[in-house]
Amino acid sequence: KGMFNNSLMGNILPVPSRSEIMSLETFHSRGTRGERLDVLSIWDQATLSQVGEVILPGDKRFMGMPQRVVLKTLNQDKWLAIFNFSPATSVSLVDLDRRELVGEIATPGCSFLYGHGDMSFTSLCADGRFLTVHLNGDGTEKSRSRSEVFFDSDNTPIFERAARVDDMAYFPSFAGLVHPVAMSGETATPMASWSLLGPDEQSWAPSGIGLNGEDDLGRIYFLMNPEANGVDGMHNAGGAEIWVFDPEARRRVLRIPLQEWGLSFAVSRGDEPKVLVTNPADMSVELYDGLTGGFIRKITGFGQETPLFLWGSR
Fold first, then answer.
1. Are 132 and 120 in contact (CB under 8 A)?
2. How would you label 285-301 residue by residue, b for 16+ Cβ within 10 Å and e otherwise?
3. What is the pTM of this model?
4. Nearest CA-CA partner of 254 in 213, 293, 312, 204
5. Cβ neighbour number for residue 56 with a 10 Å cutoff
6. C-alpha neighbours within 13 Å on the C-beta side of residue 313
7. pLDDT (tens digit, 9 = 90+) per residue, 212-262?
């Protein structure tokens, strides 16, 4: 077991190639008020000691529930892209070797970060499109392009959290569809959507905080709620089962009934994936076999910590 502190709605990103964990933090001179300071703190993955920091100017880094789409490494893990929301949207770029800010790229109307090759990133826009930005070797913008519109944020909303297999991202919708998006080439390319639901499952829909994942076998996972479809406000309620799909065949290959209600989950790496699920009632974590769906055990003893946001590892 190990622990390090993260101040005020921080997001983290483990970077195994560097044996480091990136952590966004915010401090105020009077604790809960006063002059604000945003910091990228860099932690050693083995010792959990701080090994560096970069001051982030402008009081603009995204502050909200932890997300996996706020931080992204680029350029063979030499750069860190940071999503800003102030409420203007932009991306700050940090050189991790030199521990200094490279610059900032405006992404008006477009939010979050999705991997798109080694020298590019994609953001999701409120008008139902994607913005893809390609970078030069010095971190400046080389070009940008937008995809075609593929959803309506008012009438056919999607989750900004996607399961990812290689260059394909799978965005679930509130209504139980999944939108495959090719994150390669000049711009992100939405593909034909398909349904997660069977003929007698129309009341089901994806729901939760960390509601999707993927494994090294090429499968994608979704936390499913039996009463969420068409019910306003149920998209973050959590679910009773995790459904596993073969995305190429577009078919479900496993259902994992949960012992208790789940709010968030993550999938481990390797050929024998395990699934960790947060139970919001007592903030315990349940462990399941990702191949059989069988319940393994319940993990408790986190003290006052709340494991709402999980990362899968080996």
1. yes
2. bbebebbebeeeeeeee
3. 0.93
4. 293
5. 21
6. 7
7. 999 999 999 999 999 999 899 899 999 999 999 999 999 999 999 999 999
